[in-house]
From TrEMBL, chain A:
Name of the molecule in the record: MucB/RseB C-terminal domain-containing protein
Keyword vocabulary terms for this entry: Periplasm, Signal
Any single GO CC term annotated in Swiss-Prot or TrEMBL for this entry: outer membrane-bounded periplasmic space
Species: Idiomarina rhizosphaerae
Classification via InterPro entries: MucB/RseB_C, MucB/RseB_C_sf, MucB/RseB_N, MucB_RseB
TrEMBL record, chain B:
Protein's cellular compartments: Cell inner membrane; Cell membrane
Keyword Metal-binding annotated: no
Ranges for domain Anti sigma-E protein RseA N-terminal: 6-78
Keyword Lipid biosynthesis listed: no
Span list, region Disordered: 118-143, 176-196
Record organism: Idiomarina rhizosphaerae
GO MF annotations in UniProt: sigma factor antagonist activity
UniProt-recorded name of the protein: Anti-sigma-E factor RseA
């Protein structure tokens, strides 16, 4: 009898321990596969041959696009994004040159290996580059665009930044749907593919577009000069690094400003310090996919602009001294 | 008695009596003859005595339709519709290039007039002319929270101020992206050099 009891206890203990270790294993597997899904997407966004159409929604605007990408052993990597409503606007990437063709401004080219108009550049890079500030959660499956999709979420570790919900095609790794949310879960920006055809070889048209004459490469004509004022940002949220600091004048109203640019790999923000002059509005706040917050500090106007929630922008501005 | 040709052919085939004029007309009509041929093939098939070497000659029709179609050369497909294909391939037509270039010139002049371009002492523009929020002006303020009530006159000034910061931020991002890329290139070059 006693032996029996003993045995059952032992058995129970073993079972319990077993369950425990299995669940622990599951958690680590889950975390791993989240990054794996992200990396699969990054791979698809750089290597896949596809033709797609999509809609991009931000604020009260909804914009349809055509999007295609091809990788040809002879031509290399090409990508094309065409805005389908309003003035004809298209972005063409041939390898690491991105050309912007616009009917309402001069055409120009930049050196870059991603088109960042819809998806952040970080989505084409391994997740490791974001892991200091973000984590990936694996959700369930869902049917998106008639396909079997895997839901993942990219959340900031401090829960103070915009987060992303992504639905990734299980077969090819393409992002089929994206929602960017603020920290209270309100939708800020959305993208949804409306058609997707994945090809074995580069779409025919990429052969033609690779022969297009590229517009002049945008030279950095700005005179890079050091910051003028003693006032500057003294604090940045964890994970944000200072990328550049210099002084220049704003294009639209020619205000001279000190400019600081910060990035955490996914989100970026700018801090501007300008000498206060008459007619300048001092207390401004607006929040959409980009937040702007202005406040007065002594004789200066401090402005924070970027893809960060308003509360964070306020905190950053408060720490400019 | 007036019947159309199909009906006549059908009637004749069913061994109904039609008048001589109609037969005459049918014999002259090539379409009716082909119809006759098809009817006979169908009947043979229904009766099960279809000879395997009776062929429906469609090659002629295919050839004709192909020669007609080949006039409309289909450009490599980008989207489903013709207009999409047309739009996508517009780049590659030299005359369209000129038209686009002309319109760009007009708009570029307007842009320069609207936005003051700061000019460096040597006379060249310090800022590159570029539209930094090219995607549908996507960074439009969605809500503008007024901290204190303002007059309508300052509303324009405020908008201008907001826009100028938003645009400048976009511009900085692009230039930064370029700087990063250059850095990356340099790094990979260095690595290559190390490899050598």
């Amino acid at each position: 009898m006693i032996t029996r009891l003993y045995r059952s206890i032992l058995c129970g203990a073993v079972l319990f321990a077993g369950t425990f270790s299995v669940s622990a294993q599951q958690t680590s597997e889950q975390a791993e596969s989240g990054a794996d899904w992200f990396n699969r997407m990054a791979k698809a966004l750089t290597e896949l041959n596809f033709e797609a159409s999509l809609v991009h929604v931000h604020g009260d605007q909804i914009e349809p696009y055509q999007w295609l990408q091809g990788n040809d052993p002879e031509i290399g990597s090409t990508e094309l994004l065409i805005q389908m409503n309003g003035p004809d606007f298209r972005i063409l990437r041939v390898n690491n040159k991105v050309a912007h063709f616009n009917t309402s401004a001069s055409n120009y080219a930049l050196k870059s290996d991603t088109i960042t108009a819809i998806l952040p550049a970080a989505f084409s890079e391994p997740f490791e580059r974001l892991s200091h500030s973000y984590q990936v959660m694996v959700g369930g499956g869902a049917r998106v665009l008639g396909r079997n999709a895997q839901h993942i979420r990219i959340l900031s570790r401090d829960n103070q930044r915009y987060s992303y919900a992504l639905w990734i095609d299980r077969k090819h790794g393409m992002p089929l749907k994206m929602i960017m949310m603020n920290q209270s879960g309100d939708v800020v920006e959305q993208m949804q593919l409306t058609s997707l055809s994945v090809r074995d070889t580069a779409p025919e048209i990429t052969k033609e577009i690779s022969n297009i004459e590229m517009p002049p490469l945008l030279k950095d004509l700005r005179v890079q000069s050091a910051t003028n004022y003693s006032v500057g940002p003294r604090w940045a949220p964890r994970g944000f690094k200072l990328l550049s600091q210099q002084s220049h004048t704003l294009v639209v109203d020619a205000t001279p400003v000190d400019h600081y640019l910060f990035s955490d790999g996914l989100a970026e923000y700018s801090v501007y310090v300008a000498e206060l002059t008459e007619g300048m509005e001092t207390d401004l706040a607006l929040s959409s996919s980009h937040t702007l917050f202005s406040k007065r500090y002594n004789n200066f106007l401090v402005t924070v602009v970027g893809q960060v929630p308003l509360a964070m922008a306020q905190r950053i501005a408060a720490e400019v001294k | 008695m007036s019947r159309n040709k199909s009906e006549s052919t059908s009637a004749l085939f069913d061994e109904q009596i039609i008048n001589a004029d109609e037969i005459e007309a049918l014999l002259k009509d090539e379409q009716a003859q082909q119809e006759w041929h098809r009817y006979s093939v169908i009947r043979a098939a229904l009766k099960g005595d279809l000879n395997s070497d009776i062929s429906l000659d469609i090659s002629e029709r295919v050839r004709v339709s192909v020669s007609q179609e080949s006039n409309n050369v289909v450009k490599p497909g980008f989207g489903g519709s013709k207009s999409q294909n047309k739009a996508a391939s517009r780049w590659f037509q030299p005359f369209a290039k000129v038209a686009v270039a002309a319109s760009v010139a007009v708009v570029a002049v307007m842009t320069v007039q609207t936005y003051q371009q700061p000019v460096t002492p040597d006379g060249s523009s310090a800022e590159p002319t570029l539209l930094t929020s090219p995607i549908g002006g996507g960074r439009e303020p969605v809500s503008l929270n007024r901290v204190e009530p303002m007059s309508q006159i300052s509303d324009q000034q405020r908008r201008r101020q907001v826009q100028s910061y938003l645009i400048d931020h976009q511009q900085q991002l692009m230039l930064q992206q370029k700087a990063e890329q250059t850095e990356k290139d340099e790094q990979s070059e260095q690595e290559l050099n190390k490899g050598n």
